[in-house]
Design brief:
The chain has 206 residues and is an alpha+beta fold. Helices cover 39% and strands 28% of the residues.
């Protein structure tokens, strides 16, 4: 989608693609400040970078969260280009945006799968080992106790062999849910692998 704004970020023109993506009509947004230039909608560091780059007559690229007319939040890849008048003075900004919500969702899913167990939704082996290292470091620095508990289900293979893997998976999910409910909000429960779990208990008297 395309926007053209004045030097204060107020919208002077939008194309049909913006209307189709956001649900806003041209009459809704003309004269309003573009979300790209709204300081309340962006991180201060990103907002400053945008203005510093574009007012220096350079192209700025970034990713921002936008809002549809129905209130839905979505991600856009944004390119802001300074537009010069005949005297080579900055006169407007050209804003080109692309909806990247699907790519963001895929990135989040990949990140989740890398750090969390998809069956129990608990942190996986890689994440809990990193968390354990940080917990022990913090405990040593603060001179406080911390505990690491290894939990293993005895004869779990019999459940899979007798009732099938679907039932075995459900047992693991229920166990994870019940165990997490019984722990403090500062504690961490993770699936270490198979039927093995780890609990990290910072600031404990155990």
């Amino acid at each position: 989608s395309v926007e053209i704004t004045d030097l204060e970020g107020n919208i002077e023109y939008v194309n049909k693609a913006l209307e189709q993506i956001s649900g806003y009509s041209a009459s809704d947004v003309l004269g309003q400040q573009s979300l790209v230039f709204a300081v309340s909608k962006m991180l201060p560091s990103k907002f400053c970078e945008l203005w510093k780059t574009t007012t220096a007559l350079n192209l700025w690229r970034g990713e921002v969260q936008s809002y549809k007319k129905n209130g839905e939040i979505f991600w856009e890849s944004v390119q802001v280009s300074p537009v010069l008048d005949k005297g080579h003075n900055l006169s407007r900004f050209l804003v080109i945006k692309e909806d990247i919500s699907k790519q963001k969702q895929q990135e989040e899913q990949i990140l989740f799968q890398a750090l969390y167990d998809t069956l129990t939704q608990l942190p996986n082996r890689a994440l809990v080992l990193e968390s354990m290292k940080n917990m022990l470091h913090d405990a040593q620095r603060a001179k406080k106790n911390a505990a690491v508990l290894f939990l293993d289900l005895d004869d779990f293979k019999k459940i899979n062999d007798t009732y099938g893997h679907d039932v075995g998976d459900e047992v693991l999910r229920i166990l994870a849910e019940i165990s997490r409910q019984e722990m403090r909000y500062t504690d961490v429960l993770a699936r270490f692998g198979g039927e093995e779990f780890i609990a990290l208990l910072p600031n404990t008297t155990l």
